[in-house]
Amino acid sequence: MSLVARHLEANGIPTVVIATARDIVESAAVPRLLFVDFPLGAPCGEPFDPGQQSAVLEMAFQLLETATAPRTTREAGLAWSKGQRWKDLIFTEEQPFLPGEAGEAWLRKKEAYRRLKAEGKV
């Protein structure tokens, strides 16, 4: 999405990217970013909360109108209603997204893919 925003901007179409992965989007040098500190997949607000979603869109439109410099980032300043526990599951050394044998099987498949790639078979 970040590269699309840059392409559109280069062709005269102003953009605002609404994102939850601030570091990734900023590294792509988007013209305007509204950072929403929510879990991945929910940049426009929490599910079934149209009031919050409208507020996020309004903030994005305001950023579009008021940004005066390239690569402008604004924080939405919203808090996830279920707390910040989701961050504990993401920002860790071990990201235990699959328990037990399922996680081990995933790691084995990942290593097999790396070997095949190194051998030029993928």
Taken as a percent bin, the fraction of beta residues is: 5-15%
* Number of domain units: 2
Gap from first CA to last CA: 26 Å
Number of helical regions: 5
Unreliable parts = none
What does the model show?
The structure is a single chain. This protein has 122 residues and is mostly helical. It folds into 2 domains: 2-83, no CATH class; 92-122, no CATH class. It contains 5 helices and 3 strands, in the order αβαβαβαα. A 3-stranded parallel beta sheet has the order 1-2-3. The longest helix has 19 residues, at 100-118. The protein is flat.
Write the layout of secondary structure elements.
Elements: H1 2-10, E1 17-19, H2 22-27, E2 32-35, H3 50-66, E3 72-75, H4 85-90, H5 100-118
Parallel strand pairs: 1-2, 2-3
Briefly say what this structure is.
The protein is mainly alpha-helical. The protein has helices at 2-10, 22-27, 50-66, 85-90, 100-118, and strands at residues 17-19, 32-35, 72-75.
Which structural traits does this protein have?
mainly alpha; 2 domains; three-stranded parallel beta sheet; 5 helices; 9% strand
